[in-house]
Amino acid sequence: MASKRILKELKDLQKDPPTSCSAGLYRLLLFEFTDNVRSISFFIDLVFICSWLFFLTGPVAEDMFHWQATIMGPSDSPYAGGVFLVTIHFPPDYPFKPPKVAFRTKVFHPNINSNGSICLDILKEQWSPALTISKVLLSICSLLTDPNPDDPLVPEIAHMYKTDKNKYESTARSWTQKYAMG
């Protein structure tokens, strides 16, 4: 079930990428069968999405349950110009359980901790099988633009956001330059 759903999401991303995106393909050899007479290769077209929001690189090392994505910092945020690496792990019972999504790039944000864990309701109790990885990535981009300091993963950063937004934005820009801009 999970593999079928993941493949469907890839196909849907190809057909109908999120707003302001362009889509492209690359091929992944799923497996090859050789019986001395003939060789059959099974390929799947994987989609990558490119926009100002994110660039989805897709599965890692032929593992359909482990993806990597690169989120581009939204231009209307202190993360503008940053390139943030994200890992996505689909559980075997996806879509009935949410994917595990984490930043690999350090981010100064009240809803993202030093391990890259993300405090986002749709990745926890608000998950629904109707959600897709495309919607998850768009929600993460939205979270970068509009943090939720009332449900923080890092209370100190949430406090700074609420009491000294200029300092928060300056620190977030500094971290973006240091960790997400090469």
From TrEMBL:
Keyword check for Oxidoreductase: no
Pathway stated in the Swiss-Prot or TrEMBL entry: Protein modification
InterPro entries, A to Z: UBC, UBQ-conjugating_AS, UBQ-conjugating_enzyme/RWD
Pfam families: UQ_con
GO MF annotation list: ATP binding; ubiquitin-protein transferase activity
Active site: 119
Gene3D superfamilies: Ubiquitin Conjugating Enzyme
Domain UBC core residue range list: 1-181
GO biological processes: ubiquitin-dependent protein catabolic process
Keyword Transmembrane helix: yes
UniProt keyword list: ATP-binding, Membrane, Nucleotide-binding, Transferase, Transmembrane, Transmembrane helix, Ubl conjugation pathway
Transmembrane segments: 40-61
Similarity comment: Belongs to the ubiquitin-conjugating enzyme family.
Listed name of the protein: UBC core domain-containing protein
Species annotation: Brassica campestris
